[in-house]
Design goal:
Elements lengths: L1 H5 L13 H31 L8 H33 L8 H25 L1
Helix pairs in contact: 2-3
């Protein structure tokens, strides 16, 4: 499957061409996920550069690295989901299910709670 990510012309096209509107919608979803990945990466760089030292040693760096890695994972997941969805549309099978949006939402929520605790600890000092 990763070969299809880089050069879809070398991968034999399976099944029938789907309605172009569905392919374009799939591509827009992919681009939305890429924007999410870029936002996470930008947030990681911003944390590394602009956050003051936090009450826990190296917490700023941990947050930055976590956001950078999460942004990379989102980007790879986006292209994989795009390719699997395109293939499913061509073969007329069910679209691939994904738990990734729920997992990402939970990770972001837990991160927000941890950051809130860090800010409150800093404010109490």
């Amino acid at each position: 499957m990763p070969l299809q990510w880089f050069d879809p012309h070398k991968t034999p096209m399976a099944g029938d061409k789907p309605d172009y509107r569905f392919s374009l919608a799939n591509e827009r979803t992919f681009l939305a996920w890429i924007r999410t990945g870029l936002a996470l990466i930008a947030g990681g760089l911003a944390c590394a550069q602009f956050l003051p030292p936090l009450p826990v040693d190296h917490l700023r760096e941990i947050i930055a690295v976590a956001l950078l890695l999460l942004g990379g994972v989102v980007a790879v997941r986006a292209v994989d989901h795009w390719a699997r969805t395109e293939r499913a549309m061509r073969l007329g099978t069910d679209l691939p299910r994904s738990r990734f949006p729920a997992i990402l939402a939970l990770i972001v929520a837990v991160g927000a709670v941890l950051l809130t605790v860090a800010v409150l600890i800093k404010a109490a000092q």
